[in-house]
């Protein structure tokens, strides 16, 4: 028999865990972690179509796609990179051409490619810090989701066994998941800062954090609050059960 206080804590913790999982899943699957705003004149340049074509079909090169992101209102995520460029032009010049968004995904091998001290220049040597920050920002959210899924399976088993003891493990897994989510955001921000230090942004180009990064950031405290509720429920129930057992023995 579970006390109402513990049952309420478990329900609230489950809801927080579900919200955190949804937020992190949306953040991982979208490309609005970081976005650039380039001057309107860049979109009217004659080479805008060439940049977009090379961005979509060209060889993978960090400097090439970063320069295109800078110049064409690019957005960057964990798995996607996108640019905005004028659509198909007609024989007459449109006063306000329609902007088309084109996205390209990072393949799994590309996620593990090394970064160089000077982007695009293999002769400058590998930048280990940027390389491992990139790999961590790709792996940590997957580890976080794996922890939440595992904790959910443990929670289902606990319900079937009618025991609150496994909730302690659920709380620990949620705590680790929250730390992984927080680590993802930190690795991404540190990696972008290092990229901007070794890259030259064109004049008038501004960068800002995107809304999906904030979703990933929000998921971390939600997971930690869920962990705190699970740990409290497991610990308090165990202490209460121990006291009741001692009382009955006495």
Automatic annotation (TrEMBL):
InterPro entries documented for this protein: CLDN1, PMP22/EMP/MP20/Claudin
Transmembrane segments: 138-161, 168-191, 211-234
Native source organism of the sequence: Oncorhynchus tshawytscha
Lineage: Eukaryota, Metazoa, Chordata, Craniata, Vertebrata
Annotated keywords: Membrane, Transmembrane, Transmembrane helix
Membrane topology: Multi-pass membrane protein
Gene (name only): LOC112261398
Domain of life where this protein originates: Eukaryota
Signal peptide interval: none
Main location, first listed in the record: membrane
Subcellular location field: Membrane
A Pfam family: Claudin_2
Cellular component GO terms, alphabetical: membrane
Protein name: Claudin domain-containing protein 1
């Amino acid at each position: 028999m579970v006390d109402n206080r513990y049952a309420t804590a478990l329900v609230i913790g489950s809801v927080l865990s579900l919200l955190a999982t949804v937020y992190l899943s949306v953040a991982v699957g979208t490309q609005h972690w970081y976005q650039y705003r380039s001057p309107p004149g860049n979109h009217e340049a004659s080479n805008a179509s060439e940049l977009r074509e090379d961005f979509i079909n060209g060889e993978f090169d960090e400097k090439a796609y970063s320069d295109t992101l800078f110049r064409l209102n690019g957005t960057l995520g964990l798995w996607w990179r996108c640019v905005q460029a004028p659509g198909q032009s007609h024989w007459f010049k449109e006063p306000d051409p329609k902007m088309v968004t084109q996205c390209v995904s990072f393949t799994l091998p590309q996620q593990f490619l090394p970064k160089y001290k000077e982007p695009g220049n293999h002769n400058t040597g590998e930048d280990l810090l940027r390389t491992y920050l990139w790999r961590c920002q790709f792996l940590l959210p997957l580890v976080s989701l794996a922890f939440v899924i595992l904790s959910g399976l443990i929670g289902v088993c606990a319900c079937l066994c009618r025991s609150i003891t496994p909730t302690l493990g659920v709380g620990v897994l949620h705590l680790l998941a929250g730390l992984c989510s927080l680590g993802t955001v930190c690795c991404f921000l540190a990696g972008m800062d290092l990229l901007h230090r070794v890259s030259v942004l064109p004049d008038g180009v501004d960068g800002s954090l995107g809304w999906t990064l904030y979703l990933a950031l929000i998921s971390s405290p939600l997971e930690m609050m869920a962990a705190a509720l699970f740990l409290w429920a497991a610990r308090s129930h165990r202490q209460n059960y121990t006291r009741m057992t001692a009382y009955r023995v006495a």
